[in-house]
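Collaboration report, partner site 2.

Our partner group contributed sequences for two proteins of shared interest, and the home lab folded both. The records are reproduced in the order in which they were received, starting with the first partner submission.
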Amino acid sequence: MLPRHPAHFVIVGAGAAGLMTARELARAGKRVTILEARERCGGRIYPLPTQEFGYPPEGGAEFVHGAAPFTRALMREARLSLSPLEGTRWNARRGALSPGESPTPHAGRLHRALRTLKTDLPIAEFLKTHFAGRQYSELRRTITRMVEGYDAADPSRASTFSIRDELMERGNGQQGRIAGGYGALIEYLESECHRYGASIHLDAAVGAIDARRERVAARCHGGTVFEADAAILTVPLPLLPEIALPAAAREKAATSADIGFGNVVKILLRFATKWWADNGRRHLADLSFLFSSATVPTWWTQHPAGYPVLTGWLAGPKADRVARLDTSELVEVGLTSLAEIFDRSLDRLRQDLVTSQAINWGNDPFARGAYSYATTKTREAQSALKKPDGGAVFFSGEALYAGRDMGTVEAALASGRETARTILAARP
């Protein structure tokens, strides 16, 4: 049971949601203790060494999607600017490169079917029900690639209503990057937490939350115990079952199984030159994104910046299939995909490679995946996890955000602020 006037909160996780929750509570005069399992803040925001790639590279979240009001407001506070994406998107298909993405086949019929859908169902079932014919095989492949690649989702679980939002109503919106990277935003939030008196403990992995007599105790694996009036868990969903919780909180946490959580493998390759800018067949000096059917299907550059870096993206069930590969093997898969896409010698690509990095978020012990996505049961699960029931354990994070930007840094920041404000409004 939560005390009538809680003054001290322990927050588990120093990612975007945890830091935002902490900043808001500390600014309101509450005592805040943040426990982070890693040796750094940021969670799935993961800045890589600038000296290796020539700019602040992102091993995790990289783009600001759409309006992102919470992200942009925080950027203004931190005096950070947004660099809009520029350049041309290219598509590799049957050995040929062409500008622009391939149009969705039978788009009119697809939109009509989505518009008239009354009951949500998994997108794979929707496609099987409405577009089972051979003439729709390309449509099924296109939608499946989008669901797996952009949403990092399993089509057998992903909500058709959620996909309908992306395809029809508002799309994905304008994208950009934070000048200096998301790491600069985390540094600002971290400094804000310190400014308002919050304490941050790194290398403090929590294994249990005990609640008794209007107090909670967060027990770390190393044996250290932190007591407070209430606990707020902001860890990625797959980690919730690994934290022992009081019965009521454990029952709420169990509903998180109804929220999808997908994996991502991200591969960064720095070459000696921008060899793709003029590869003998097509002039790709302004390449922004490249889409293909290769093993690593999606690539992007830092255009308009001239860094000779290509970033590969493998998401959803396809990312799970390379779970056993180590970093060097993933880099090799990336190089092989580029050799296939550009019809270029693999040995030459290896010779041109200056440095590389590959991050499989599914193998990260403090993430176990990349980000959440909506299933047909997600909205009910989110309501259950956010329901104020007088208990001393709260949940927050990008997976609990009910807006369309679920799975993003924007969602994490919005959820963190919402959690803090809900607590402050109910408990003066």
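Second partner submission, folded after the first:
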Amino acid sequence: MLTNIACVLAALIGAAVVFLGARAFWAPQAATGFGIPGTPTDDPVFRAWLQVKGIRDTATGLFIFVLLAGTTPQVLGWFLLVAVIIPVGDTLTVLRSNGPKAAAYGIHGATAVTMAAISALLLLA
């Protein structure tokens, strides 16, 4: 039962990450600044960076679904644990850019904690 709950939570994380990645392409203005203040959304460099982030997010979310479909909960758990590096890095990037702590901890940090918790559930299953 706990494994099923953890797998559903992992699928929700995967769906959210795919959604955020895709949104970088269809509504880039919605990702304004990523928590980094003063980010010009009309800047071509920012648009290119956002596309890189969108590809990264989409691929990461799809990896979760591939692992859900074709491997054990423990392998998915290890993947999620390693993938925690991404939101931790995002948290540090926002903080180093003097971004709002609410965005750093409330979005990116909370994502890291959630992913680590789901990973623990999967690894203990």
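Feedback sent to the partner group on the second submission included the following. The first helix runs from residue 2 to 26. The CA atoms of residues 39 and 73 lie 39 Å apart.
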